[in-house]
Design brief:
With 399 residues, this protein is mainly alpha-helical. It is built from 15 helices and no strands. It has helices spanning 3-32, 37-65, 68-87, 91-118, 123-133, 135-154, 162-183, 191-195, 214-243, 248-268, 278-295, 302-317, 319-330, 336-386, 394-398. The chain starts with a helix and ends with a helix.
Length: 399
Amino acid sequence: MNTTLARLIAGQICVHGSMAGMRLAAPLLALREGYSAAAVGLLVALFALTQVFLALPAGRHADRHGLKRPVGYSVAVACAGAGLAVVFPTFPVLCVAALMTGAAAGAATIAVQRHAGRAVHDATELKQVFSWLSIGPAVSNFIGPFAAGLAIDLAGSTPGSLEGYRAAFALLALLPLLSWFCVRGVPDLPAASAAAGSTPGGPPQRAWDLLGDAPFRRLLIVNWLISSCWDVHAFAVPLLGHERGLSAAVIGTIFGAFAIAATVIRVLMPFFAKRLREQAVMAVAMLVTAVLFAVYPLLHSAWAMGLCSVLLGLALGTGQPMVMSLLHQITPSHRQGEALGLRLMAINASSVLMPLMFGSAGAVIGVSGLFWAVGAAGLGGSRLAWRIANRVPKEAQKA
């Protein structure tokens, strides 16, 4: 892993970590102030909601301006959002802060991913780079909440005091500044490549035109299925564990095993990238997930559920790096920001809507039925992954 990639990963971690910390601290403060679970649920949803609507504009902006300007704007918005919560720690302002930090994290992620994908020279490097990059969110999801939690408990006169929350918000407002410190030293890529492919006097290109390309459309569907499997595991395991009479600590350990396994496989993937074929990895991952989802509801032992969770983490953890690698191969370099925006929009829309659908479906068919239904969809996703054509545009070969 070279210095440039390390800077990109660190920059992504700091902006995303600010959002992740806000996603812990803001709901806790809302609960402390006596707001209902429904209000807190709305607050949490706002972190993803802005990314649904701003992902495409952020992608186009990255296509036009490259890395540093989008990241600079993202840093400013994240600092301002968390800073508002320091000055006005009220529920309406927390909602605004959620919108701002969520938007900043999404825009910075698109810019970093686009730059990283264009900076490599072949498919093997793409797989290596995105395997390393995919570790960033896992790290930021630990650093942000951990730092916020420490500040809440230690900075105030008493644990959980308003002063502690203000200190946490202040810390999260400063964290994105480190992103700019990391990214400003990254070498710029040629601006001409980002603007390539436009036809003077021709009709304007629309992001939705990308969906007319069959390989990209199939990749987006497979990515959505992988994300849905990830979400259904997070949603259904607490319900299943409760049915089995498992304690909260045991259920948390099962979750932790899943996260650790997903991180470990992403750390190992760069060393085997040359032997990995994206379509094959995604197809096998979806097939293994379908089998594990079929078995999961039949397990009653915490150890068995933990083992199944580890295997799921290993399977689903391979998905994002392969999706990102293939996305940069099947889309023209001058439209990769838009493609990344479409992908992020789909994932965040799924994160907002799917829990509602899971809740409705679980009430009708039960938790076991939910596992089996999503597992069956995974079988279809495995077949679809095999059908994604691996064609590399000429522009991408020159990047």
